[in-house]
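User: Structure please.
Assistant: Input sequence and predicted structure:
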Amino acid sequence: MSLFELQFNPGVDKQTTPVGAINRWINSDNVRFRYGLPEKVGGWQSLLTDTICGVARQQHAFVDLQGNRYVAIGTDKFLLIYFEGQLHDITPFKSNNAGALTTFTINSIVTNNSNKNATFTTTTNHGLSVGDMLTLTSVTAATNSSTTAAGYDGFLYQVQSVPTPTTFILTLTQQETNAGAVIPGSASGTVNPYDIVGPANQTYGYGFGVGNFGGTVSSALLNDLDGALAANTAGNNGSATQIRLTSTTGFPASGTIAVGNELITYASIAVNELVGITRGAFGTATTGTSNGQVHNDGAIVTNATDFSGWGEAVEASTVTLEPGLWSLSNFGQVLVATIANGKTFTWNAGISARLSTHASTTTSGFETAIATGVGNPTASRLTLISPTTRHLIHFGTETDIGDTSTQDNMFIRFSDQEGINRYTIEATNTAGSQRLQDGTKIIGSIVAKENILVWTDNALYTMKFVGAPFTFGFEQVGTNCGLIGKNAAIEIDGVAYWMSSNGFFSFDGTVNTLPCSVEDYVYDDFDTTKGQQVNAGINNLYTEVTWWYPTQGSEFNNRYVVFNYGQNNAQVPMGNWYSGTNSNSIRTTWIDSLVYPQPYATAYNSSNTGSFPVIIGETGLGQSVFFEQEVGTDQVNPDGTTTTLTSFVESFDFALQTDQGIGEYFLSMGRFLPNFKNLIGNAVINVSVTPYPAQLNSASSFSPFTIDSATTFVSTRARGRYAAIKIENTGAGQSWRFGTFQADLKPDGRR
């Protein structure tokens, strides 16, 4: 027999067949390629004993003037600070566009001895929705209730239901012990709602065709407003709490209406009035001074509850509702946080009570004085700080600051230098604005080496500081290369990498298409309607860019694809790529090692319940786990238990080459010589064979083979026209790097 040596090129090739991918690996999971060789990835461990309520969507690490390190974590419900091994809730409270907090006075509380629920009545329309978060302060308990005043204050609650515009139901910390429902008596207190971030995932919404354009309904189609619907109220004529129609005949007892391009839910009907209003439902525009759009008397009201357009249910609309996203950056030691399509908040790490202080719209505590100015825009798709010029830049923002009805998805506004609360354009400052043209909305922006990169859904622009009088210059550098999601772009060593709806791209001064050896595998079932959930991360230690993304039918990210920008060679013209589906490896956020020595990341499980913040009555939020990456060999969970981190890599189907060609003869494998480096514990090698390319591989006799550091050779019995190997580990505490494959091979007939 001849000793046959097979050397594999780095990366995975899924663009061809197992036979056609010559000298390549064709499948892998939890494997990276370093020095051209496959190895198991490093493990990770939880940084906390707590888990986070909700799905984390953004991380940002920064350092204050005293050298203290922080990580800001934005979820679909909360804004949190990680500091010295602990989490702190700094979520902003709801406020109006002028920055005044939105609070409601409690008029009465009715408890119930059959469960822990209590009904709260407010003196004015509260504007709450199911799932909203709030705290209570200065509560005077209901008469005859076994729950004292101290049983209400100091807790975070999730709203369970909203029967009317002035009532809502919370689950309390304890069940009423007195008989029957408690008479309200003289109960009082204040409701402090948290600001609303958005849904946990990107979903289909009510969009094109919601009206009577080519569609049908099973109930009433439309009617008219009886009285104008003001922008600063939930009801008619600027004062009422209901929406009045000329007729509600045929409308569902509760449901959704469309007025213009705004969706409004209602809880019940009283004569011709819709009661229990929630403006701007399902992520639709709530433009205007406060709660919504202005709608004139007689405006058409469409029953959107059971509308079907073009023969399809509204859930099948091509319009999507974006998930709750954050933009996080820092202006010195001040955290700047923007809710997608909402307000911008700040949190000052330099004050003594910082960890018990919530972020707010009030800009204070900066290293340089900020003069009184116009104030920040109140509706922006995203923001970032220009670190060298110290401007706060708003993308997809208002043309008229403070009027959310003027939000333009392609409009950019930037502050004065060193004055992130000054936007009035004057000869003596550097504030300004610009509207982009190519695309329908700005998707994302990152700070690059020499400029700021701005993506729309179709194009790439550079934004470069040029000084007075224009401050920033804008140049379109690419088209048909738009960004799939806000967090789908990353920059390292002067090169930007991003994921589009139609492929991968890079920018090093010129837009380049990234050849990808797993492109079909990724895009054949990539759910591009959930592009805002895509998350990109840099692992500079291993020169990797990773994108985590959702496939068709998945509510959340469930796959990843990696581009190794530092491990390319002439033998891999389509790049060094690899991918995986291991659920333990899916991440919703990632920050590289810089402020902290290792990368930090979050993983989400919608089935489990988070433990921080502590929420009374929490339901349906799921949990995120905060991990330190590249530590150990396995996954260490918040409770200290270990989850085995399995991995594998699988080769192409190789054949024996003779004078008659490749694959003319069957091959017989008598033995192979394991070749591992850094083998910890055991590894497993599987040998599989097949007689023809069209037939599935089957395991050879005696396979799989367990390999340890003392294994010198393995006797096998394998016969087939084509053979393949698979290296993997299945146990905890194991790690490996594979070298070349050497085996005794000989021709063994043609049949």
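The radius of gyration is 30 Å.
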